[in-house]
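Illustration: Bidirectional sugar transporter SWEET.
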Amino acid sequence: MVSLAPLPAFYQIYKKKTSEGFQSIPYVVSLFSAMLWIYYALLKKDAMFLITINTFCIFIQTFYIVTYFYYGPKKEKIVTVKLMLLFNVFGFGVVFLSTFFLPNHSIRLMILGYICMAFSLAVFLAPLAIVRKVIKTKSVEFMPFTLSVFLTLGAVMWFFYGLFLKDMNIAVPNILGFIFGILQMILYAVYRNHPKKTVEEFDPKLQLSDHPVVVDVAKLGSDAVETQGGNGRNGAFNKV
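Result:
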């Protein structure tokens, strides 16, 4: 449900034919985190739930990124490609090569668990950019409420799942996930009925002047008559 929660936002992107205003980093980081958790589950063994949910997460996050990339402005496309190369290619490659060939299986699993925990925290921190935008614009247009709700509920469930398995690598990141989920819901409650700012409020230069522009027609006519004596009708026309 957490993975499917952004679907209304992407339907909005599809209708508007642009992803401007949205950011790709939460989906790139979520994809990277899912890749790490599958690697962790394969090494840990007997962690089928981690494999199934994160496999689904990889497919859905890939769909989001492709959709974002298709409708995104050129500048945002370049940023998304750079993020993908940094996290999903270079980052995952470094993690895999630095842990897979360790001779001690328990040490390999422990190090990989710490890495997964760190990037799970990064997944929960990624929406901070959206939170900042909500506070700045006083608008929740780009922060789906369903995502905040399911993020909070999912964090609670995964915390207890990790606790019952006595796996703190699963339990600990979800404490932060719960806190940020609550924060996003509070922001939604505060700003959901807030009036949107107009163009003039964002840029005072675009406001129309309150002072009327006065044209003295009589003076303009007299100037034209005076000029007509020296330069003829063309001179009067140019003066006007």
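Reading the tokens back as a structure: Confidence is low (pLDDT under 50) at residues 198-215, 224-230.
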